[in-house]
Amino acid sequence: MAAYVIFQADISDEEQYERYRAASPATVAAAGGRFIVRGGPTTLLEGEAAPGRTVIVEFPDRQAALTWYNGKEYAAARLLREHAAEGRMYIVDGVD
C-alpha cells in the first residue's frame, strides 16, 4: 500500500530553501518516491490554513518512506532545510 509523506512548512530563508529543493528530488527518486504536490497554490475550504508550503511525496509503502527519511542521502538534504523552514512532516498510509 502506498504511503505519503506530507510536509507543511513556513519558509523563513528562501535562498537556503532553494538549495534544499535542488538537493531533495534525487533522494526521493532513489527511494522509489515521486512528488505528487510540490508547493502549488492552495484554496482553503475549511479550518485554518497550513503554513506557507505543502509538499506531498508518494512512496511504494511506509517502510520505503521511513527508509528515505532516515537515509544518509536525505539527511544531507535535510540539513539544508534545517534553518530555512519550520513546519511538520508526517507519513500517512494510502488505501488499497
List the helices and strands and how they pair.
Layout: E1 3-11, H1 14-30, E2 34-38, E3 53-59, H2 62-70, H3 72-81, E4 85-93
Antiparallel strand pairs: 1-3, 1-4, 2-3
Helix pairs in contact: 1-3
Entry summary:
38% of the residues lie in helices and 31% in strands.
pLDDT < 50 stretches: none
Give, in order, the helices and strands: EHEEHHE
What is the oligomer described by this structure?
A: single chain
Whole-Å distance between the termini? 6 Å
> How many beta-strand segments?
4
| Main sheet summary | 4 strands, antiparallel
What would your notes on this structure say?
With 96 residues, the chain is of the alpha+beta class. The protein has one domain (3-40, 52-93): 2-Layer Sandwich (Alpha-Beta Plaits). It has three helices and four strands. The protein has helices at residues 14-30, 62-70, 72-81, and strands at residues 3-11, 34-38, 53-59, 85-93. The chain has a four-stranded antiparallel beta sheet. Helix 1 (14-30) packs antiparallel against helix 3 (72-81). The mean pLDDT is 95.
